[in-house]
Input
Amino acid sequence: MTLITSIFLHGGWLHLGGNMLYLWIFGDNVEDKFGHIRFLVFYLLCGIAASALHIYIEPTSNVPTIGASGAISGILGAYIFMFPRARVLTLIPIFIFIQIAELPAYIILGFWFVLQFFNGMLSLGYTPFGMGGVAWWAHIGGFIAGLLFVIPFKKYR
Output
């Protein structure tokens, strides 16, 4: 039961806000393609898969698997599969300047996944500086689950 309830917990307002921003940007299009009930089931399955990979990769981890990040990562996996060329309005920081650009989803989400994977690999080294208490492998597991589950959940008309 905690695999499901943990999907709805957050480590603070910034964590909640970040997750809701990603869900707002990417989730509505995926929900439109799946329908409300399929989207909810998809979301829950991605969250469970995310936690399962985190537990499998780091069974002795002290990082609590709280938050919707893993499930929302599944939404990102579905989005990149269904809408790879969709343009996403993005803020790009260049030193002290901020550039606004519309980039294809596969670039934004591909870059996001590479960052998650890189940080996940670093977290395996148990550096003395720590990795900020982020369950990187839950993000990776959710994204992969989203890619794998997207076909059976998509509504066909």
About this structure: The domain at 2-153 is CATH 1.20.1540 (Rhomboid-like fold).
